Amino acid sequence: MTKTQEAAPSAMNIKLWLHLLIIPALDLGYLSLIFGWIGEDPLTRLAISVWTGYFLLCFGSCFHETVHLTLSRKRWFDVGLGELIGTVMFTPYTVYRESHIRHHAYLNKPSDWELWPYSDPTKSKTFRRVFAWFDLFAGAVAAPIIYGRIFFDKNSPITDPQMRRTIRKEYIAAGLMGAFWIAGGILGMKQGWLDTERILWLLLPATIYGFMQTARKFTEHLGMQSYDPLIGTRTVIGKGMHTRLAAFVNFDIIVHGPHHRYPKAPHEALEDKMIQNQTANPQVAYPVFPSYFAAMRAMLPSLLTNPGVGMNVGAAAPEKGGLKDGRELVDGDNVETLAIPDIRERTAA
Prior knowledge:
Strand order of the largest sheet: 1-2
Number of strands: 2
Number of helices: 15
Order of helices and strands: HHHHHHHHHEHHHEHHH
Oligomer: single chain
Distance between the termini: 46 Å
Largest sheet: 2 strands, parallel
């Protein structure tokens, strides 16, 4: 084994442990809100809530990496941590994975369950406008609803009995987790170290997280017509320190087009992938922005007037044969991210 080969896993392990610092950062935030370690005045509590909400966002990005099996590149670790995070966030790992697989395979198409209702041409503009604001200001509630549809909807594509049993068990675990939090809250109030005001402060980070997560989703997708991942998503490649730091702690998810085009690629390689495509295709106007704020400015008209993607913003109806389309957008072994039995069988039929 060469020194370069030895260094690559070592560098990956260092980055993994740096990213896992998200967890103690979250713990510090919540414990400070409970026990008032840093301060009890409203401004201090608000600052702690923003800190905690931001690291909840990073925690969600960690969840995303476990679904792609790119967090540690060890299946047992990524799946195990993903199941734990999904339980805590009330979005079962299998539900998220099945929805996210289709998000990559059917980007901006009616079968993109993750972008419902914005991808659904049967939903009116009025419904989408109302739901968008619910999604933005109650994202922590909206997300489990959006992802849960793929299991609970009468037209659910998840038909495999074993997979449905697994998801039911995951929902039971999430329910038990919810009961644990409620019991802890009741005990805390009885013991005197929690009260109604403190509980409301503890709920604020989740509200902030939901807002930031939905704003990120909207910035990357809302208003985009194309079914091609490099053209149908907004990508941010910035040189500023804030943009670089935000990209790192969130696994470079803001380099979003290349992530869709190369779903199994290491996140640190995504920027180079985008540059390679720009160099190879100088005639293509890829939606690449120098900062997240620039990408948000481009998204805002869609949010305010017509929150949608794909057909809901003027795209032609996509051709049928979803997985075949998805395979054309990935390279080599990346296909395994999309290759799920029920889609394969329907496409082959």
